[in-house]
Write a structure and sequence with these properties.
The chain has helices at residues 17-32, 51-64, 79-91, 102-114, 138-146, 157-164, 205-215, 230-240, 271-276, 281-287; strands spanning 4-7, 36-41, 69-74, 95-98, 152-155, 169-172, 182-185, 195-197, 220-224, 247-251. The protein is of the alpha/beta class. The protein has two domains: 1-77 and 254-290, Rossmann fold; 81-212, Glutamyl-tRNA Synthetase, domain 3. The protein binds glutamic acid.
Length: 290
């Protein structure tokens, strides 16, 4: 089987040096083994991912020399695939409608913490979802449904782990934030009841990434180590949906002068600004250490 890599950016801002590292590392690793490298446009957020940002992204990738093998996959064209996966998980009894709003979650967490009980956080530092069952009665849920209140679909993590029934792990050829490598044990429970379909869009990052890696025949996932812990959720979903597990390689992040990771939202210098300032693709490679 031909080794297949992918670069999977979300075009909700302009690409920066961190994206360049991910894209070019995928390209170099694929070329080194005569493999393929595919581009996947992760645009499930159809509001923030505008056509202008997608064109700018393609232009930037072309400029740095990321010549992906065809075809490109756009997630916004594959909502039916994600719906299929959701139906399967639903048929297994692993999904529930989650109504709590951000404000309600904040309130519950603040209340418990004020009572001296620390609330568990996920690996990204967000409070674990409290679960509707303990907070909303059947009547509350019926009322919210009748009022057409929006809901997300969440994975019932405890049941999912029970159904998986086995310890999952993955092959890590890069390193996690704490230097984890080799066979790494997955710990999806650390994430609690993750979102599988958002209130505003009928899928989620975790669900679509797992479905697409399988659909595109991805054998190697190379991405920043900010996504290292998410791999635990991905392994669980792959197991539940009978999808193959790729090999994972999490790479270092490019940090700004203040040591924090670059981000589109913090307005870090985009590749196009560097190009306008006279940088060449070779300068980009040198700056990111490739
Ligand atoms: N779309 C994700 C991002 O831009 C990356 C997804 C992945 O590589 O798994 O952060």
């Amino acid at each position: 089987m031909i080794e297949t890599f992918r670069f999977a950016p979300s075009p909700n801002g302009h690409l920066h040096l961190g994206h360049a590292l991910s894209a070019l590392l995928n390209l170099d690793m694929a070329r080194a083994v005569n493999g393929r490298v595919l581009l996947r446009i992760e645009d499930i957020d159809t509001v923030r991912c505008t056509p202008d940002l997608v064109s700018a992204m393609l232009e930037d990738l072309d400029w740095i020399g990321f010549d992906a093998d065809p075809p490109h996959r756009r997630q916004s064209e594959h909502f039916a695939d994600y719906a299929d996966a959701l139906r399967r998980l639903d048929a297994m009894g692993l999904i529930y409608k989650a109504f709590l709003t951000r404000t309600e979650i904040r309130h519950v967490v603040a209340q418990r913490e004020a009572a001296g009980r620390p609330w568990p956080r996920d690996p990204d530092g967000a409070p674990i979802y409290p679960g509707d069952a303990s907070l909303l009665s059947e009547k509350d849920v019926a009322a919210r449904l009748a009022q057409e209140e929006p809901y997300a679909l969440r994975l019932d993590m405890a049941r999912a782990l029970q159904m998986a029934g086995t310890l999952l792990d993955w092959q890590e050829t890069g390193a996690g934030p704490a230097g984890e490598s080799g066979r790494v044990t997955a710990d999806a429970s650390a994430w609690g009841d993750v979102i599988l379909a958002r209130k505003d869009t009928p899928t989620s990052y975790h669900l679509s990434v797992v479905v697409d890696d399988a659909r595109q025949g991805i054998s190697h996932v190379v991405r920043g180590h900010d996504l290292f812990h998410a791999t635990s959720v991905h392994r669980l979903l792959q197991h539940l949906l009978d999808l193959p597990a790729p090999i994972y390689h999490h790479h270092r992040l490019i940090t700004g002068p203040d040591g924090r990771k670059l981000s589109k939202s913090a307005g870090d210098t985009g590749l196009r600004d560097l190009r306008d300032a006279g940088w060449t693709p070779a300068d980009i490679r040198a700056r990111i250490g490739l």
